[in-house]
Amino acid sequence: MADQTKKIQKSKISSSRRLGLKIRLLTVASQMLQEEREQKKKEREDCLEERLPPLNLSGLSLQDLLDLCKDLHLKIDVVDEEWYDINLKVSKNNKEIENMNLKIIEIQSKFKKPTLKRVKISAEDMLSILLGSKHKESIDFKANLKTVKKEEEKKEEVTDWRKNVEAMSGMEGRKKLFDT
User: Fold this and answer.
1) Between 170-179 and 161-168, two packed helices, what is the crossing angle to 10 degrees?
2) Widest CA span of the chain, in angstroms?
3) Were 168 and a residue from 51, 134, 157, 173 both cysteine, which residue would form a disulfide, CB within 3.0 to 4.6 Å?
4) 124 exposed, middle or buried (CB, 10 Å; 0-12, 13-18, 19+)?
């Protein structure tokens, strides 16, 4: 009975207190998130101030302003090219990751190919199944096969090797090798 009483015991925190704690945790978490957002925004602004000094346009002549505009356009072009290159690299990497994930899924999947049963079916039945109503004639595949005659291999006569050596020696023997 002691085991049953331990299992039946209710939680020591009442539901209203649990709800109050949950609300407090959520408010603290939302405050922390808000502070984190503000900190990131401030860091971004500080970084931009370091990289991009404020423009002093007062007191510049028309030619100086045109030169400044050209420089800014060149910088913008460089940044756009870098951004485009980085986006291409990211898209390639994402495609590679997707392909690798698909390969992993294929490898991990436990798809088993079913064992196929051998079906004995004649060629005409196969054609009637494949072609349906178009197949009306019976086709004799064996009649269309070519007959191949086996050529008898030429057998060399076995002769005394000493006679062959004597016949092939000298210039006449070498001439016979080239003639044949």
Assistant:
1) 100
2) 122
3) 173
4) middle
Tell me which DSSP letter residue 59 carries: T
Q: Are 139 and 127 in contact (CB under 8 A)?
A: yes
Query: Residue 90 corresponds to which tokens in the numbers above?
Result: 């990211």
Neighbour tally for 168: CB within 10 Å: 13
| Mean pLDDT in consecutive groups of 10 residues from the start of the chain, 180 residues | 56 87 95 97 91 80 90 93 96 95 82 76 78 64 70 61 62 62
Calpha distance 48→51 (Å, rounded): 5
**Rg of the chain taking only CA atoms, in angstroms:** 46
Residue 55 makes CB contacts below 8 A (sequence gap 6+) with 68
The sign of the CA dihedral 155, 158, 163, 169 is positive
- Classify residue 59 as left (phi > 0), alpha (psi -120 to 50) or beta: left
Q: Which pLDDT does position 159 carry in this prediction?
A: 61
**Going by C-beta distance under 8 Å and a sequence separation of 6 or more, which residues neighbour residue 176?**
167, 168
What letter represents residue 178's amino acid? F
**Cβ atoms within 10 A of the Cβ of 128, count?**
16
